Amino acid sequence: MASHNVTQSTTPSSGRRLRVGLVGSGKMGLHHLKAMEASGIADVIGVADPAADPAELAAILPADAIVVASLDELIARARPDVVHIVTPPGTHATLAMTAIRGGCHVYVEKPFTPTAAEASAILDLAAQHGVTVCAGHQVLFEAPALGVWENLGRIGRMVHIESYFSFKMVRRTITAVEQVNDILPHAVYPVVDQMRAGSGLADAPIEIAGMSLDPSGEAYALLRLGGVTAVVMVTLNGRPVEQYQNIVGTNGSLRADYIGGFLGRLVGPGTGPGVLLTPYRRALHTMTGTTRGVTKLITGGSYPGLRTIVRRFYESVRDGTPPPLTARSILDTVIICERIGAALAEAESVEEVRAQQRLTAAAAALAPTRADAPRVLLTGGTGLLGKKIAQELRQSGFPVRVVARRMPLFSRRVPGVEYVTADLARGLDPALLQQVGFVVHAAAETAGGREDHRRNSIEATRLLIEAAAKAGARGVLHVSSLAVLKTSRELGRDLDESAPVDAGNLTRGPYVWGKAESEILAAGLGAELKIPVRIIRPGPLVDWDAYSPPGRLGREIGPLFVAFGPRRKPLSVCDVTTAARVVRQYLEDFDHAPPLLNMVEAPPPTRLDLMNRYHRDRPDLTVFWFPAWLLRAISGPLKLVQRYAMGAKQPMDIAAAFASERYQTGLAEQVIQRASAGRPSGRPAPVPEPVGSGRLS
Question: DSSP assignment, residue 12?
């Protein structure tokens, strides 16, 4: 690989402010914008993202910054000195090389690239063009990692490193293997430079001496370089969530704790009588270090390492000094991650063969679909609720076709269900709606900003209902959310099906806004296109078979569960199995089903009921009931703290976040009773009109 140097021709004059641009304006991209501004030596001159909403970005960008669709346009119009690439990993290589050819220095978010070949190509091209490259290895610049380098010489000759990262699935749209690959660099890159420093070997390849992998979310690798070994461990199943490193030497050890934000030091051999003091020393470091680290996190904000590495990178660009990361460090990380990722993919492939065999056998054991049951096209059929709907419909004899943005793994499919891929926001191939009687629309965007929800919730709903009407479908069942309604506090009464939708209100977040606008659009298109549309609004979803308490009940904090609100007060929820049965009931008798239904358990469980259900499964927890009056009393002062001490523009009302909403459940109770009775064939009697139910005609 060519040497990685900075030439004066592309280095801005010392003291001049840098012009920086961002590619990718998702959640992590917004953190990069904050780091750019916090650097104090750079000006944000533009964002490139084809899905960006200029109006949404205008509130956080400088007045003269531009928002464009492509990196090429950003370079041509704004001439940035530095470009940050915060897009999916598969796009990093192409975008980075485009920026380099445009004369830009490049910061690439992790994972740097999926392959070592791509990483080498980027670094070689950067050397040829005289620009610098930095990877998103921000953990190296957090206090614990920086402390390691300050204290490394005190623990003697390095013997072993343990790098551990336990995490959780953050999105249902990715696989466990993809989640591991995403976080794996955070466990690998701190080890790379430490092993080289401890071994004294600057260029020898780091050996992967062994691996143990499980596609459910487990990756363990033994690394060796000279006389130093390291174990890298990533788990999605182990708890609690932690990230730490233990660096062991001949004269003591260091523990870099990235959750607590501190470095624990046990310097000295710790032999003889000193063995008895080791636990006390460790406990003292943990207590004092965590207190300092958490205080800094609260007062300094999230991603402190990102701000530090960005500033150091900018300084290297401005001053023509070496970048904060070496090319060797970046490439080592990619090589190790690529090999572990390839082995994980192979393990996943083997498991998928077995899953396919199990799926085929389960499908063969099912009863055939009913001749009188119309085919159902289901969107969102791979999510928590959608999968239950697919199971309920197929077991009741309906032929089901699930439309997904990507093909789910065999291990995630429902036996006997057909799966196809499509992007709803681009419209469906008419062939997918052939012989479809009903469309159940349960898909919606769950992340991102306003533009993401406009495209993947609102526009997708419009195109889907138009296609269903054109194909001659008998009807559309639109799955909305109770969150779209104005609150009972605003209306001064319990909510029923006649309660107004809180339209156009972005202050409640882009998800609620997108769901509200989608529901209004679905009802309007139904009337306009003469296709029957029914709407059900599930409440907060729970799964009694794999129960986790709803967010409004409280929070689990270590060995405690802090529950909020009066114990005997109802808290409306919706079990996914109940909702799936109601969907099936709607399709069995679509013409007589209520046009609108607020879908909650009826009668609703109390907060104590919900807590007791969870406590039966988790007897290890100690439940603490936080007094409702105290929560209301401190909510106002906490909003002031958020606004003035933490800089929040829209501080959260803590009391409102845990408050119980009030619903009339008469209609829901009758529909649930009818659905639970089970009428897998034939047409059930119509649901009677309850008095005061809010049923719309």
Answer: P
The CA-atom distances, in angstroms, between 484 and each of 101, 495, 503, 517, 549 are: 48, 12, 8, 9, 21
Please, which pLDDT band fits residue 288 given cuts at 50, 70 and 90?
confident
CA 35 to chain CA mean position, Å:
21
Residues in CB range of 468: below 8 A, 6 or more apart: 377, 433, 436, 439, 476, 531
CB proximity list for 261: less than 8 A, separation 6 or greater: 142, 143, 144, 289, 290, 292, 293, 294, 296, 297, 304
Q: Which domains are seen in the chain, by residue range?
A: 8-139+308-342 (3.40.50.720), 140-297 (3.30.360.10), 366-538+575-602+663-697 (3.40.50.720), 545-571+605-662 (no CATH)
Closest among 194, 191, 167, 201 to 181, alpha carbons compared:
167
The SS3 of residue 83 is strand
How high is the pLDDT of residue 685?
34
Distance from C-alpha of 548 to C-alpha of 13, rounded to nearest angstrom? 56
Q: pLDDT over 70 for what percent of the chain?
A: 93
User: What pTM did the predictor assign?
Assistant: 0.86
Provide DSSP, 185-240: HHHHHHHHHHHHHHH--SSSPPEEEEEEEETTTEEEEEEEETTEEEEEEEESSSSS
**What are the tens digits of pLDDT across the range 24-74?**
998 899 999 999 999 999 999 999 999 888 888 888 899 999 999 999 999
The predicted pLDDT at position 648 comes to 64
C-alpha span between 668 and 600 (Å, rounded)? 6
